[in-house]
Amino acid sequence: MQLFVNLVPIFVGIELCERLSTMGIAVNLVTYLDGTMHLSSATSSTVVFNWGGTSFLLSLLGGILADSFLGRYWTIAIFATIHAMGTCILAISTVLPNLHPPPCFPSTPRNCKEANSLQMGVFFIALYSIAVGLGGIKSSVSGFGTDQFDQKDEKEKAQMAYFFNRFYFFISVGTLLAATVFVYIQDTVGRSWGYGICSALMFLAIMGFISGTRRYRYKKCVGSPIIHVLQVLVAATSKRKLKVPSSVHLLYENSPRESRICRTDQFCCLDKAAIITTGEVSGTSGSATANPSPWKLCSVTRVEEVKMMIRIMPIWATTIMFWTIHAQMITFAVQQAATMERSIGKFQVPAGSFNFFFTGSILITLGVYDRLVMPLWSKRNGNQGFTSLKKMGLGLFISIITMVVAAIVESRRLSVARAMNSSVSTLPISAFLLVPQFALAGAGEGFMYTGQLDFFITQSPKGMKAISTSLFLTTIALGFFVSSALVAIVKKVTGGGARHNWLPHNINNSRLDCFYGFIAVLNAVNLGLYLACAMWYRRKLDEDTQKMESDTNFSSRG
């Protein structure tokens, strides 16, 4: 057992290096696009939005490849190498003068030359190589780490908690170091050094990972839960003209009795996937053949698993808007900080380092909740803290307050900008006025992240924990894409003619306060939809529980 516990530092190490590398690039990327590539503030933010969304969305692809074809070991090894190559290309592009436009100065903004197609092409190759690598790593590292523990062994099962605690701790440490040390290196020493160190860390992580190859435990590919969902949908569609039998005993079921799920009436069209047709039965008993095609015939339990996943989709859809707040903190909020006074004595705080308050707030929120709120809540109500639905609702509510505060602060910053000469690079207003919005965003994410993770894992069937985790990651991805769409829509609606463009090239001439207010209104509407979906889900869950208890009592009497 000790042999496998000694492998824990390898997985913790590769995740730490990945966090340092990825977040070291992500939290300060918008200033690179604005200051080095000379893109507009809106375009820079859109690039970051799309990259962040693609990175999380590709975790679905990484999960499918790991579960169905490559296995977790090869998925990590291949995609980590792709990630490292991407960071290496990015570092090289900052060194070679032909791969980025010449520098310009705030006093002569009209002489700034925007990056050409070749320079942007190399940049995008590097950036999306990192996104591909990140998708494969995130989908497999934690799962491959848990594969090293035998859950039937009580000692190893206890050690797994140690692994998760250290894993999450070093993710947070990596994010904090990226937002402080790495951003400082990029802004003061040079981007080439900052990105070069990111590349070196990823190659170091790969070497460490490969060093444990002979000691790892490996599990066979069992197929992706996403494929299982598709099988039910295809089978139900192919039998759409058939009528569902009145008795559940006439439907196909091959799952072990202890893991079977009782049939429910909701989404009954999917029950057609379990109808046994001619050619799918053997003998006269009406039982299915030994190996029926899963694309033509699915068990009642498999169908019910898909139904459970469908029931959580309204909750999934109404949590996407929250992650638009996260997207603003690493883009527009960083650009705001770059225009403001950031000095502490003689030390100049890098604009990207303000995400330290964001990540720090997450850790403080989780610590206070774990050590103070949960014990008090337990004494008062007998429950172990808030339910996952309440956590997500609280996170959505805090997101509205975050955007309202951000709009107020931005309104004050813009009033100072209008009173100053447009050539001034630093406005005489403290960037630390942005701390409350970073802190609020972090507090909201602390509740939303843990609430979503808890909800999607506990409310999904045992056989589909992987796909439920992927669903959680897609809310983050789609949050970035929604942000990108909102920027495009706002630019289209407010730009041109006599109208005031809310998101022009220069952030000091924008109406970012109105944009923040618009996001606050959208989140308020979304909160209302979420509450309605949460009540519907709670009611359906109670109805299913009552039906299962009724079926169990009927069976016991029979």
Give a short overview.
It contains 18 helices and six strands.
CATH superfamily of the largest domain: MFS general substrate transporter like domains
**Count, helices:** 18
CATH topology title of the largest domain? Growth Hormone, Chain: A
Main sheet summary:
2 strands, antiparallel
* Helical content (DSSP H or I, runs of 4+): 55-70%
Rg on CA atoms, Å = 26 Å
Query: Biggest sheet, strands in spatial order?
Result: 1-2
Structural notes for this entry:
- By secondary structure, the protein is an all-alpha fold.
- It folds into 3 domains: 1-223, Growth Hormone, Chain: A; 225-309, no CATH class; 310-558, Up-down Bundle (Growth Hormone, Chain: A).
- It has 18 helices and 6 strands.
- The model is unreliable at 1-5 and 554-558 (pLDDT under 50).
Write the layout of secondary structure elements.
Layout: H1 2-5, H2 8-26, H3 29-35, H4 41-68, H5 72-95, H6 117-147, H7 154-189, H8 191-211, H9 225-238, E1 281-282, E2 287-288, H10 300-311, H11 313-318, H12 323-329, H13 332-338, E3 340-341, E4 343-344, E5 347-348, H14 355-381, H15 388-419, E6 427-430, H16 435-458, H17 465-494, H18 512-557
Parallel strand pairs: 3-6
Antiparallel strand pairs: 1-2, 4-5
Helix pairs in contact: 2-6, 2-7, 2-8, 3-4, 4-5, 4-6, 4-17, 5-6, 5-8, 7-8, 7-14, 12-16, 12-17, 14-16, 15-16, 15-18, 16-17
